[in-house]
Amino acid sequence: MNEELNDLMTVLRFASVSTNSAQAADVRACADWLVTKFESLGLSVALHETPGYPVILARNAHVPGRRTVLIYGHYDVQPAEPMNEWKSPAFEPTIRDGRIYCRGSTDNKGQFMAHLRGIEEILAKEGKLPVNLIFLIEGEEEIGSPNLRSFLETHRDELKCDVVAISDTGMVAQGVGTFTYGLRGIACMEVRVKGPTIDLHSGIFGGAVANPNTMVARLAATMHDSEGRVTIPGFYEGVKDLQDWEREAWMSLGDSEPETLELTGAPELFGEAGFHERERRWARPTAEINGIGGGYQGPGSKTVIPREAMMKISFRLVPSQNPERILDLAEAHFLAHKPTGVTLEIIRGHTGPSYVMDPHSAFGKAAQRALAATFGGKTALIREGGSIPIVQAFQEVLGVDTLLLGLALPDSQLHAPNENFSIQCFHDGVRLSQALLHELAL
Ligand code: BES
Ligand code: MN
Question: What's this model's pTM, rounded to 2 decimal places?
């Protein structure tokens, strides 16, 4: 096997699921392994404890007058469930058809390990890096980076840099260099619908009390109209149209509808009326129910009225939408639509603002030159629908833009069973990282 992949295979075996405290030891073991790895490159490394999982900082010897580049990544991963849908074990990296299958292979271990490998090769060949480097890897991205902003604030001086680079987004296709200049934000919420104080026999009591399952379904149905628009009052306040150059850049990528149909396997596409499929995913805000349930879910039937039902919601947000304000609006909306016979408990979850930068800025152009040098051909200029909550904080706390140079393919299955990372993308990522550092060097 390819020796360059050894370290990646090792990192992938840590089941570093940040949302599940049962896997805390694996998350920490992954952090410890990374510290040792960075030390072996001759970088100075610090593992910083936070109230959650540690932040790792690695740096070379900084030389005054040179550019300082901060590369960010995350070593935590999403849960691997449902386990039985994996064709090979979720935490045993397995190569099939040029892809490494494993939870975290693309999101984000494969992508930050490409940078690590790129740096390792430069150091081996040239003995030093062309820039002052700060490599920051955190372990809480998949739970909304709850401790990273305050970490940036307390370590502001140490983290002073000219620009941030992240590979944690997608490419429009294999071999097509892709520069992402915007991300959607996110705001999460859980709604619990409470009825009787105990589960009830649905024959004895059915008809006399409200069923929380029915009521959570009613509440869920109040969030959209029949044309896919979100009906929460104020939700679209201040949301702007695409600029002409964006529309042109996106249209030049060709029609995305057939590919999205194929990738999703959905019987047809559906979304907010009046917008193209790509605009719906990259530039329109949405309300999604990520989980819904209550009552009996096992085999056969059970005649019960559950005492409680719930739904978990996430909103994807675009510039001008404030995540906390969106949660306020949603809360007011649900209370206004509270069904009869139940009470609501509304639990606000994590939030992160959207991000858009100017791809025609000096750093944006440097990144695009690195992409062109690595991939040849035309570089795609896109926004993405996913969120990386800390990117906005890099701008607000450190005052710098983030260059998003993604290596995920459209069918990399992030967050889903059979997540995979293309070995070609890993090698391209190694060259991209090197090209980027050379482009950014003064
Ligand atoms: N790498 C993703 C974000 C992403 C994926 C951006 C694809 C663009 C294209 C990141 O790790 C992620 O999954 N973020 C979460 C954030 C959330 C849990 C706070 C997301 O978007 O759901
Ligand atoms: Mn993710």
Answer: 0.95
